[in-house]
Amino acid sequence: MAEVAVVAISVAKPGHEEKLRKALVGIIGPTLKEQGALQYDLHRDVSEPRRFVFVERWESREALAAHAKSAHIAAYVEAVADWVEHSEIRVIEKIA
């Protein structure tokens, strides 16, 4: 199984930045307890504070798939539906 990395971007609707930030922080603990989670770091764009970026590393695509189906991620997605303007998830692999 090859390690996989993810860049996950969420952009808050204007006025919902802090609610989204708190919700994102809230999924870090449960995610880091998941089997196969190697890194799950939350960042905020310096020039665009509505943009939040997770930099993630997983032991395998299977571990990432299990994460995507986890109860805390499902609850997060439902909770923030009205606060997120745009989201994007990119699965990437290290080549050098």
Summarize the structure.
The chain is α+β, with helices and mostly antiparallel strands. About 35% of the residues lie in helices and about 35% in strands.
SSE layout and pairing:
Blueprint: E1 4-12, H1 17-26, H2 28-32, E2 37-44, E3 51-58, H3 61-68, H4 71-80, E4 84-92
Could you list some keywords that capture this structure?
96 residues, Alpha-Beta Plaits, four-stranded antiparallel beta sheet, 4 helices, 4 strands, 34% helix
Q: Which fold does the CATH topology refer to?
A: Alpha-Beta Plaits
Q: How would you state the average pLDDT, rounded?
A: 96
- Measured between the Cα atoms of the first and last residue, the distance is 18 Å
The appropriate CATH architecture is 2-Layer Sandwich
**What gyration radius follows from the Cα positions, in whole Å?**
13 Å
Report on this model:
- The chain is α+β, with helices and mostly antiparallel strands.
- It has one domain (4-92): Alpha-Beta Plaits, CATH 3.30.70.100.
- The chain contains four helices and four strands, in the order E-H-H-E-E-H-H-E.
- The chain has a four-stranded antiparallel beta sheet with strand order 2-3-1-4.
- It starts with a strand and ends with a strand.
